[in-house]
Write a structure and sequence with these properties.
Pathway: Protein modification; protein ubiquitination. One of its GO terms (cellular component) is cytosol. This is E3 ubiquitin-protein ligase listerin. GO terms for molecular function: ribosomal large subunit binding; ubiquitin protein ligase activity; zinc ion binding. The protein is an all-alpha fold. It is about 75% helix and about 0% strand. It has seven helices and no strands. Helix 4 runs parallel beside helix 6. The protein is globular, with a radius of gyration of 13 Å.
Amino acid sequence: MVSLIALHEFATLCRDSEISIVEGMLPFWPRLYSALAIDIKRTVREAAQLAHAALVKRIGKSVAKYLKLLAGAWFISQYDVYPPAASIATNSFNVNISNLLITIIYQFIKNVF
């Protein structure tokens, strides 16, 4: 319950705060997001995707230097067994990542695995 409330507050903070404050939180987000994206509670996974979508929408291209750390959890979350979480992850991925970059990411994943 605490993580759910914290994620909702984080999403609000991402939407309402100055961009410099949001970018200051960015170095810490990949580790938290990776853990929250696979949480056992589906509502936490959904809230993590909402918070991640708000963060990425707010910072835009600044996410590029952290994409390597975020891509795994973000990609896997698109196939979450809880449809709302998967849908949010897919929508935020498609809206924020260009088609060219998506192709490059898929090729990289294909070569790695």
